[in-house]
Write a structure and sequence with these properties.
single chain; alpha/beta; Rossmann fold; 2 domains; seven-stranded parallel beta sheet
């Protein structure tokens, strides 16, 4: 793989999120990468728009043309793909990467498809040495790494991991991307046709083949959080984030324990206003945004966005520890484009065996270091 022409390729660079990734890489002064997509003309426009060097290579590749994907894989160590919904446009690329030993990162929030890819290609990835890394954006890096960070501190402080962790979105400005909403709609349509997909969506351990842990909170009904003193609403990203957190625990041989319980919800303001906000949030969580794939907020909206997520570790004897992860851009676009970029650069520096991973399952510590140094994230133990 060291003889590859490019360190990595940004596949989908002419799309909204792909353009943000390219723009961030230019701002970071990163070299050795190429841009790929269906149209060289559109790629050239994006290259010039983001100020990438004129000699940045442009590669024509199309999800409907597997040979073009294989040719792209032959030229790069890593494929960073923003082309979703992945269940519609990602399967052939995962297959090509797993077969050729090419590393792969995406922004997938489609757990049923991810399980299908694990079942279909994990053996090939292990054999070829390809590192297939799903969910390297807002779903699920802040949550996946937030739990890992909390548990490292819990073990250091108390000598054992917290068996119960609550993930709570304390504040957030900016919502899910149009691509995320398209992925959710595609998953719902697929689940209507295939009852097996619905079963995977309901199962918190859908991404841990061969392991079933204890019962987990559903997190789908608004509730009053007595510890926080506020109402908590269902969080639309919880169904994918919680599965990824459990997969990280699984991949790392259960450092959180085999009895680990985890859920995520969205905190609101206190009182009756909070209850009203909760009801509205619960409805919004299942109706989605009006953005379509390829669309997104303005630069001003992205830069004014942020998120603040807390993780509360609890022990049966009353011990408690709390961590916070914060991001300085809107979660769905501004922060996501930085996170997948830094995850790609982190993976580039790692020498690890192949397989199918979460970010936390393969690069938690070095990725946290990069996110703090370059991507505007903070990780902190609050109590």
């Amino acid at each position: 793989m060291s003889n590859k022409e490019f360190d990595f390729v940004v596949y989908g660079a002419s799309g909204f999120t792909g353009r943000l990734v390219a723009e961030y890489l230019v701002q970071r002064g990163i070299r050795g990468w190429a841009m790929a997509g269906r149209s060289q003309g559109k790629l050239a426009e994006v290259r010039d728009l983001v100020g990438a060097p004129k000699d940045t290579s442009l590669i024509e590749a199309d999800a409907s043309n597997p040979s073009s994907l294989s040719a792209m894989c032959d030229r790069a160590k890593i494929i960073l793909t923003t082309v979703g919904p992945y269940q519609l446009y990602g399967s052939e690329l995962v297959a090509a990467c797993a077969a050729s030993g090419t590393d792969y990162l995406d922004l997938c929030g489609e757990p049923a498809w991810m399980r299908h890819m694990i079942d279909a290609h994990e053996a090939a990835a292990i054999k070829s040495g390809a590192r297939i890394v799903f969910s390297a954006g807002f779903d699920s890096i802040p949550f996946d790494l937030g739990v890992w960070y909390l548990q490292q501190a819990a073990i250091a402080k108390f000598g054992s991991p917290a068996p119960r962790v609550k993930g709570r979105v304390r504040k957030m400005a900016g919502g899910a991307s149009g691509g995320t909403m398209a992925s959710m709609k595609a998953t719902l349509r697929a689940s209507i046709k295939d009852a097996g997909i619905l079963g995977l969506l309901k199962n918190p351990f859908a991404l841990t083949p061969g392991f079933e842990g204890p019962a987990q909170p559903a997190g789908i009904v608004p509730e009053y959080d007595s510890e926080a003193g506020v109402w908590a609403a269902p969080f639309m990203m919880a169904p994918i984030n919680t599965k990824n957190v459990h997969r990280t625990n699984f991949l790392l041989k259960h450092p959180y324990g085999k009895d680990f319980v985890y859920d995520e919800m969205l905190l609101t303001t206190i009182g009756e206003a909070g209850r009203a906000l909760v009801d509205a949030a619960a409805k919004a969580a299942f109706s989605g945004s009006g953005l379509k794939p390829g669309e997104g907020p303005s630069k001003e909206e992205r830069e004014s966005g942020f998120y603040d997520v807390i993780f509360i570790g609890q022990y049966p004897d009353g011990k408690r520890i709390q961590a916070a992860v914060k991001g300085d851009r809107d979660p769905g676009y501004g922060s996501t484009s930085k996170m997948i970029s830094e995850a790609t650069l982190t993976l580039l520096d790692l020498k690890t065996p192949g397989g199918v991973f979460t970010p936390g399952g393969i690069m938690a510590a070095p990725l946290i270091d990069r996110l703090v140094k370059y991507a505007g994230l903070t990780f902190e133990i609050e109590s």
